[in-house]
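Two proteins were folded this term; both appear here.
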Amino acid sequence: MKVNRIIPDIAVDDIDAVREFYSGFLGLSSEEFNLGWVERFTSPDTGASVQVLTGDETGQTNPVASVLVEDVDAAFADAQEQGIEIIHPLTHEEWGVRRFFVRAPDGNVFNIVAHPE
């Protein structure tokens, strides 16, 4: 699996309540991605990112990180072949990504995701 980027996912109760901290204090722009339940804050200078979410729209749990991969179908096949626990099936989401969730042996959940062309 080729990983292009990993973005921490931080669960929050209210995105509006934390926006100023991430965009103001940390200096991250909030313009990159906002679906209401998840928002990505990114540095315009370095590309460093963090996502905050109130609750995943279709997943059963909130992931700790989103792992952007080159080929999500190949990553899904690898996860199945290796017997990794898949807790959200490979899905083409209505907001344009194709993704699935896996649980690491330590219990952390990861969102494995790609933006189809």
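Next, the second protein.
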Amino acid sequence: MNAQVTPLLEISRLNGGYGAVPVLFGVDLVIHPGEIVALVGNNGAGKTTLLRAISRVITASGGMKFDGEDLLPLTPEQVFARRLVQVPEGRQLFGRMTVEENLLMGANRRGNRAAIARSFDWVYGLLPKLAERRRQLAGNMSGGEQQMCAIARALMAEPRLLMIDEMSLGLAPIIVDQLLAILDTIRKQSVAIFLVEQDVFAAFSVADRGYVMETGRIVQTGTAQELSNDESVRAAYLGAEAGA
């Protein structure tokens, strides 16, 4: 990525946590328009906490700008209005609502009905399984279909940056592969993607660049290929999947 391109998200020396309990320590991270950037690390490394800091759900200090605007003074609602949208870990769908009703929740801040209809057409074209299930209760679908629905709900908000927390969690490898292919299609619609994953192999297979987080600190960064080939990363995260 050209270093002269203005970052979409720029985080510098970010600290954050829960009350008096610090979790993030001096985090530096940049995402440019049109990129897929992966943040990887073991459970408890602080990945979800970083997403919560970006979304302004928890207290943080340091530097954090989105398209040049300081995010720190904003509320979660104001961050969402800037079209910085998160797909939460565990999907968090409304199980007693239909697929289509869940998707409408993603568009609830948009007033242009014609534009919302176009978004439905695009999302259903991207995820035809959801079109088949549009009248089905979200809680009755498989885990893979629920993850598709969660991503689609976020897309209905017209994100400029889509943050996805543990997309592969609990899903069969064939479903994960389908979702990874969908991310590349989403990126082609000028949507940057921040993919937060424990599944390092999956994350680096689709990302342009990556960051490795341990105990609330970024300990390595580079292109996805560089990190995939790094012996310390392979030993710590890729294991047998990386092959010889």
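The chain has ten helices and ten strands. The longest strand covers residues 21-31. These notes refer to the second protein only.
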